[in-house]
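hey can u check if this looks right to u? its 663 residues, i copy pasted from the old doc so theres a chance i mangled smth
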Amino acid sequence: MRIVRVALDVPLDRLFDYLVPDALDPQPGDRLAVPFGNRQRVGIAVETATGSKIDSARLRPIARILSDAPRLSPQWLELMRFVAAYYQRPIGETMVEALPPRLRSLRPLPKRSRSAAAAEASGTRFVPRHSPSEAQARAVERIAGALGSFAVFLLHGVTGSGKTEVYLQLAAEALRRGGQALVLVPEISLTPQLEARIRAAFPETCIAVLHSGLRDIARTSAWLAAASGQAGIVLGTRLAVLTPLPCLALVVVDEEHDTSFKQQEGLRYSGRDTAVARAKLARCTVVLGTATPALETWHNCLLGRYQRIELPERAVPGSRLPSVRTIDLRPEVLHQGLARAVVEGIGERLARREQSLVFINRRGYAPVLACGACGWAAGCTRCTARLVLHAVDRRLRCHHCGAEAAIPRHCPTCGNADLRPLGRGTQRVQETLAALFPSARIVRIDRDSARRRAELSRTLDAVSRGEADLLVGTQLLAKGHDFPLLTLVCVLNADTALVSTDYRAAERLFATLAQVSGRAGRREEPGEVRIQTRYPGHPLFAALERHDFAGFAASQLAERKASGFPPFVFEVALRAEATKLGAALGFLRRAKTRLPVPASVRVYDPVPLVITRRAGLERAQLLMQSASRPALQGYVRELRQALQGEPRANARWHLDVDPIEFA
């Protein structure tokens, strides 16, 4: 009796045994059509056996082997086992959800997907845009010397230091040795510019681009090219790290500090950390590139686990880091939220035909619509959050659940018709600047103005060509973009993170401000950054002015160690949601008493999340910590198994390993 054990996309942490008909010969890594319940489903063969613990009379045979895509490699299966075990997710859900949507379907792949993958070029010729600087050449030489073995490098380069050129040189070396290079970026919006650079540098190489914004056929074709080994370079967001790559030789994680590398739904994994684990399994080299490393990454360098390489200067001759200046708002009389020094700085740049960027990390017109008579404020009925006023289409929107409402004509509480917007978003700042500088060409870039990838790409290209005078934007503009004419960055509303209860808030604020500051002065013209704040004496701003990440990181790590926060402890959050908060908290209280807690693990009392109600559900969490990763993983694994039988009628739950969000 031949048996094949199959992973299925079901919330059970087990493999399912199926009989193998004489006419079929499934191997580990094959996609299969198998009966499950009263219909067929796609499964993945994980292992074969000659017997089963289940009575053979109860076993059902597999229906067929789906052979229209490459067989998944043993290395990929090993990676999926690691991801499922570490992130505490059922093995079947992990494996099947790692595939593109079309490969989870029983429908045969469209011929266009297969033919498109087969038609790509496969050369390795490298066309450098310019010769590397001495610092870049040293970095390439040192990292290239490690290719063919597992090693982790932090490429710590200031903004504009030419990290991309190092990536390209290393990819060329990996291709020359017959390997594949995987390049990860945190945002879909960063792929067009980097894709153009890669295609120009490797005109004969098959390049696969993978992210969730692609249409089905394009994504499937790219996956097939990567999995078959035909794609020499794979560029994508975090999901690309789960793609089979039979000849993987180099992994690059650009902007490795970015929180977008952490998946927040379904399989909650870190693309950066999974990239490191994958490189270890493949015995290849991984490069983590950033100007503002995550404190976990910096800590690993201090411990000697990662090797640090510095790019301390900008790559363009004559360019230098911008000067950073804080503007004390306490004595200021603001004009629609803008300090006089900001308005004057923009005017000076307009007179010199240079570009300015006004950065405010809040989209919409105003974060609150309120009544001055009774204090009413427009809130979301499904979330514990305010509705944001969007003036362009005259709507109120919740940025957490997507709910919308019309702007009321009068206060629903007292009837007052004088409802006023409080605070500022990108739309209101754009309106203010248009009134101050009527002849300026103003471009707003946020998730509302650039909903389509092609539209955003065209806008960014136009800005780079000098077809705009003033930019207003959110963190979409903070990283990865090169605007040659931009010499002034003005930052509004930076203080909220300084009073946050999130222990990561200061780290994120420093990274955001350093990244957005780095857009200024990337050519010969000097750049300047002006930051509006009511806390000009805060040490964070002093470190920014000195461009002193190392000093800032040292102070933050000292605080984390004293307080018992990561990276000095490891964390897992058990979260529950229900229609009533009491049900969610009750589930977590029962979970806390379900197992004896080891002495090396600390389990806190369950508490509501900051945004307690989201999309109509009340949310709470139970935080678990330990200085020992194995001890915490072992406890959480047993807890998950114990909770598998817990009825989900009253509360839904999930585990978040190494959580980075607590809202």
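The two ends are 52 Å apart (CA to CA).
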